[in-house]
Amino acid sequence: MKKIALPFVYLIIGGVAGYSLRSIKHSSSTITASSDHSGLVKPGAKADKVGSKAQEASVKSATEVSLKEQIQDILTDFDLKSARKATAKFSMSELQQALALTAAMTKTTDRDQLRAQLYRSWAALDPNAAWQAALVDPFSKTNGSLLGSVAGELAKTNPTAALSLTLQLSMGEKRASVMRALFSDWSSVDVIAAMIYSNTHPDQPVEGHSFGSGLAKLAEKDPIKAANATLSLKDSMSRQYTLTQLMTSWVGNDPSAALKWADTLTNPTLKRDALAAAISAWAKTDPAAAMAHAQSISDPEARSNSLKKGWTDWFRQDPEAATTYMATSADSKLLESLRFTFGYMTESLSTKERAALLAKLPDSEAKQETLNTMSDSHIRKGQYNQALELLNSLPDSSQRDHSVHKLGTEWAAADLKAAAAWIKIQPDSTDKDLAIAGYSNTLARTDPNGALQWARSIPDSKMRVGAMINIATRWLRNAPAKAEAWIAQEKSFSASDIRSIRMFAKMEGDYLPSSVSVGTRR
């Protein structure tokens, strides 16, 4: 193998001013509303109209100024807990005025959080009115946070009514956002009831991780009850996510109790998930003890899953120590399962840091596969020079050939001129042939004749024909008449090659018939 030359210069690829709230008349329903009548004048009153109106205007002005000052005070060094406490004291008329005032303010994160809290406080007094107002709020056209505040507050006392309102919304992200808020607030007061509802209504769009905070709250008082409830989640991804959250709290207080509970489970799948979540949480505080316990798990699948989860959390805390453990482990299955994880976890490191960790790994097939995985990741992210450095450290293999071919393809897709300049400085080798095959594959999308000129320069006949087959397939998709004329006179193709070209050209997507493999390595 001749090393791929690095280029001399690294490539860098790099509302509304206001609105009025309508008065809402309430008919008898499951949700009762209270009304503020403080502004009504008694029938038959004979006060001085001019003086009365002036006095009303004066009081109204003073009230508005006072409310505006309160709003400004809340937004200064905004704190959600303080905002919740302050707005809970507002009357319905004050809440409506506050919403009108904040709607005219410049949009900020604090302002939007305050408006959501104002709706939540309104919902505590009159949920029907708050919901109807939130529906016509301009912010609700694309965002479900205001409606979610109302539905969530209502769910604390009347989840059935909250669900009835929410399910009237059209399908989409806004409704999903409101459902998350609804079940999160419901879970904060009765997580078991919320989960029972979800499990008995699988037809409704409920996301399992909405129960996370409620289960964590329950776990503080009764971790076993919370853990058993978590296992009732039917969505495996939601169950694993929630178990991890739960175990982080439980293991921090009593790791032996958490592991003892997990070990008593009889369902293999649930036991595997519970053990992995416990080991993962334990590894954040005592990785050596967590990994030692994971090694003692008798079930092979549960042991492997727990070791992987624990190692991942260990790496986040201490990359050097976790890599040393990986390098000295005699567990070949663990090393195989960690290679993708290691590649992903090291993407956030500098080139020097990543190289230092790689140096810890012993030369082995597992290390080569890890390096291949990492080089593919760099190619996908447009980090071609980093990919080249890794590829140059690898021995010849079919997997490495695939990566070099992919490098030519992806670099050309990002920048044809830069990729062509890089290929031209490569030494005469199989690596250059693979890069040309990849480059011509991309060029064929816009310039099939130019792509053929590049492909014909490949000395390896097997690779050259493979590259030409792919070019012909792309050409046939885009310009059938011209492609057929060329295919008919091309002597490099066999009858089988032509059948493949025509079959793949008819397929939907970007499928190609040739994987472009090496014939004679040089």
Number of helices: 27
Spans of at least 5 consecutive residues whose pLDDT stays below 50 are 8-50, 56-60
Total beta strand runs: 0
> What is the rounded distance between the termini?
7 Å
Task: Name the structural class.
Answer: mainly alpha
β-strand percent reads: under 5%
Rg (CA only):
33 Å
Broad shape? globular
Mean pLDDT value: 84
Describe this structure in words.
This protein has 522 residues and is mainly α. Among the domains are: 64-206, no CATH class; 413-522, no CATH class. It has 27 helices and no strands. The longest helix has 28 residues, at 173-200.
Fold topology:
Blueprint: H1 49-75, H2 80-87, H3 92-103, H4 109-125, H5 127-136, H6 145-155, H7 159-166, H8 173-200, H9 212-221, H10 223-230, H11 236-253, H12 255-263, H13 268-283, H14 287-295, H15 300-317, H16 319-328, H17 332-345, H18 351-360, H19 365-380, H20 384-391, H21 398-414, H22 416-424, H23 430-443, H24 448-455, H25 461-478, H26 480-489, H27 495-505
Short description:
The chain has 522 residues and is mainly alpha-helical. It has helices at residues 49-75, 80-87, 92-103, 109-125, 127-136, 145-155, 159-166, 173-200, 212-221, 223-230, 236-253, 255-263, 268-283, 287-295, 300-317, 319-328, 332-345, 351-360, 365-380, 384-391, 398-414, 416-424, 430-443, 448-455, 461-478, 480-489, 495-505. The radius of gyration is 33 Å and the shape is globular.
